[in-house]
Design a protein that fits this description.
By secondary structure, this protein is an alpha+beta fold. It has helices at residues 67-73, 119-124, 143-149, 166-188, 195-213, 221-237, 239-255, 261-278, 283-300, 309-333, 336-356, 362-393, 398-426, 431-444; strands at 2-8, 22-31, 35-42, 45-52, 57-64, 81-91, 95-102, 110-115. It is built from 14 helices and eight strands.
């Protein structure tokens, strides 16, 4: 029994510098949905391998071949081969990382695999920071798939692939997005400047939650809510450093290089708070974040859920209707909480259309672009509201506070008008018509 996990490698570790590795030639005699018969030449060694199963745990039988038998069989693998150089690196816990650097049609692609003695050991494994997004359970990244179809289209890693069942595809996207979040959390724990990694991790978690909303009626409500809460909790634990940085950036956009002593005192206070929050990213808290995200990733890794197309369409339509209602509430009340709720719905629309975009016509690409711009503008508006609340709590010169508050209000008022104008265009279709057009596009694929 073979138990292993596979990851992308975005940057090879320094230990590989100057290491020649072992040249591998690998070709396939037979490939089916859950099994393969493979020939491999590793240096002077030639092997025939039979594998059955998928995901972390697979049955494997390996038989040594003499060179003459290999030479006779090798032509039968024509057109279904991969070439790579394998490097072996020692890891903690007597584990070995096998880093494969591909050449030929897969040039520029690198992955790393780690084999384990048990499923429990595989679950406990803490990947090093240089390990990228996990690929375990994604059939498009299996060597047999790479040999047949080549490297997966980068644009489809987080979108529905051709012929992919919507329910299964969205489960794969949840696994891929949470894997991407984990890779960024690992990187944040070792980077001198962690802000960008934290931002990318939080963004991946938000996209995971948008994908989960498309699984309403496909998986149980209990599982969907639990996964959503884990992603939300992990994002909240990462929010302190990012929110502090955003306040500073928003303050600079509103006040510029103001020499007002009160503005300077406010800026210094925010910088101090940002320094404190950077300390939130300690090994203990990051481990807790990784654990929460990993729980979700494992639930969706390699999962097949043949959800009906109409269910996914209805879920996206439900989100569109909620966004339209949130826009109306924000326009009527002008209250920050209504605009913030609208922002979340606009982000969902953007992310969900992005997932389905390969199956949709250009009219939905235009809508997705408008939703993206709208979500950004509503995000800027939210940042102004947070900054205004922060100012109200500060013990600063009252005259300066009034002047700074007026500048924030002026910027906010213009942004509100811009958001409402773009919102009218984004949500101009009635929900029923939106759902019908969405269904037409997806059924025609």
């Amino acid at each position: 029994m073979e138990i292993e996990r596979k990851f992308l490698v975005d940057r090879t570790p320094p230990e590989l510098d100057g290491s020649g590795g072992v040249q591998l030639l690998q070709g396939y005699l037979s490939i089916s949905q859950d099994s393969e018969i493979r020939l491999r030449q590793a240096g002077a060694q030639t092997l025939l391998t039979v594998k059955r199963g998928k995901g972390e745990s697979r049955e494997e039988v390996e038989v040594a071949l003499d060179q003459s038998a290999f030479t006779e069989l090798w032509p039968l693998t024509d057109g279904v081969r991969v070439e790579k150089v394998r490097h072996r690196l020692s890891l903690d816990g007597d584990l070995v990382a096998e880093v494969d650097i591909y050449s030929g049609d897969l040039d520029g692609t690198s992955v790393v695999e780690v084999e384990f003695a048990s499923l429990e050991a595989a679950f406990r494994f803490e990947p090093p920071a240089w390990f990228g997004r996990e690929l375990t359970g994604d059939p498009a990244w299996a060597n047999q798939s790479l040999a047949v179809a080549g490297k997966p289209d980068k644009g489809l890693e987080f979108r529905l692939r051709p012929g992919e069942d919507p329910g299964t595809g969205i489960c794969r996207i949840v696994a891929a997005r949470t894997s991407q979040a984990l890779a960024n959390v690992r990187a944040a724990g070792h980077a001198k400047e962690s802000a960008e990694h934290v931002h990318e991790a939080r963004k991946s978690l938000k996209k995971s939650r948008s994908a989960l909303r498309l699984l309403r009626g496909v998986i149980s409500d209990e599982e969907r809510r639990d996964s959503n809460e884990r992603c939300r909790g992990a994002a909240r634990m990462l929010s302190g450093p990012r929110d502090a940085e955003v306040k500073l950036a928003t303050l600079a956009s509103v006040l510029g290089d103001s020499e007002d002593p009160a503005a300077q005192a406010w800026r210094i206070a925010l910088e101090g708070e940002a320094d404190v929050h950077r300390g939130d990213l300690n090994p203990r808290s990051l481990k807790e974040v990784r654990h929460s995200i990993e729980e979700v990733r494992r639930k969706f890794q390699g999962r097949t859920e043949p959800g009906e197309l109409q269910t996914v369409v209805a879920n996206l339509g439900r989100g569109y209707r909620r966004g339209r209602d949130s826009m109306k509430a924000a326009r009527k009340s002008g209250e920050p909480e209504h605009f913030h709720d609208w922002r979340k719905r606009a982000k969902d629309l953007r992310y969900q259309l992005e997932m389905l975009e390969p199956r949709l016509s250009s009219r939905f690409t235009e809508l997705r672009e408008m939703a993206e711009e709208l979500a950004e503008m509503l995000g800027d508006l939210h940042d102004l509201d947070v900054l205004g609340d922060d100012l109200a709590r500060r013990a600063l010169n009252e005259e300066s506070k009034v002047r700074m508050s007026a500048l924030i209000f002026e910027a906010r008022d213009q942004l509100v008008q811009d958001c409402l104008a773009l919102g009218r265009d984004t949500y101009r279709q009635k929900p029923g018509k939106f759902i019908n057009r969405l269904g037409e596009d997806l059924r025609a694929d």
